[in-house]
Amino acid sequence: MRKIVIAGNWKMNKTVAESVKLAGEVVAAAKDIKQVVVAIAPTYLALAKVAEVLQGSNVKLAAQDVHWENQGAFTGKVSADMLKEIGVDYVIIGHSEQRSYFGETDETVNKKVRKVLSLAMKPIICIGETLAERKEGRLESVLTRQVNGAYAGLSADEALSTVIAYEPVWAIGTGVTASDDEAQEAHAFVRGLLAKLYGDSVAQSISIQYGGSMKPENAAGLLAQKDIDGGLIGGAALKADSFLGIVRPGEGLSK
Ligand code: PGA
Prior knowledge:
This protein has helices at residues 16-29, 44-54, 80-86, 96-101, 106-118, 131-135, 139-150, 156-159, 180-198, 200-203, 216-223, 240-247, and strands at 5-9, 37-41, 59-63, 90-93, 122-127, 163-166, 208-211, 230-233. The chain is an alpha/beta fold. The longest helix has 19 residues, at 180-198. The protein starts with a strand and ends in an 8-residue tail after the last helix. The protein binds 2-phosphoglycolic acid (PGA). 2-phosphoglycolic acid is lined by residues 9, 167, 172-173, 211-214, 232-236.
């Protein structure tokens, strides 16, 4: 049995006051959600205040990134201890924006994943191909490199605490979504990679989210796919009603 995990990635949106307001709306709207794990990822700046709003609710707190070192001279960065203290449950790692604009590599993804796991938080490991890579027939080699890189040195037990977000880069923020079949095919391939690393039973227990222009209109179709276990939502997570419009179709599905 796998959990359906749906996380809102707010990116660089919302002031602290706006974040508190939206978090309150999500908490109210998600009250009746029983099976889907719902998480929201505000900016670092808003995490502490949003944590207060989420107390006692069924909405989990996520961060958008982390640094792998414990502390020190790393201007602009935030450590895993700092996130843990605030009550962060999930940490998004290796988002394509982080990879393409800020020099994230498979090695830094791996360091961050290990650090987050060492503090008993759950990494949401983002992978996905660009349009050029897909067109050149490199989908499988890119996903293989990213998965093997992210999981290097991780035990099966550690792997069980991870979530993967498969986000085709060409679908992020573009309004273009992978078709249900395209997404399912990539997810099945990724699960196969996990099976090669850890065996089938572990692979069957790791949730793999889809991300990239997921919205209420396409959520049910995507979530119905055998190997799609949730979503990482950008634009549509910035309003409580559209976010919950993606969460609700996940209720009652078993994976
Ligand atoms: P999007 O972003 O839903 O706006 O396409 C998803 C993501 O980047 O996680």
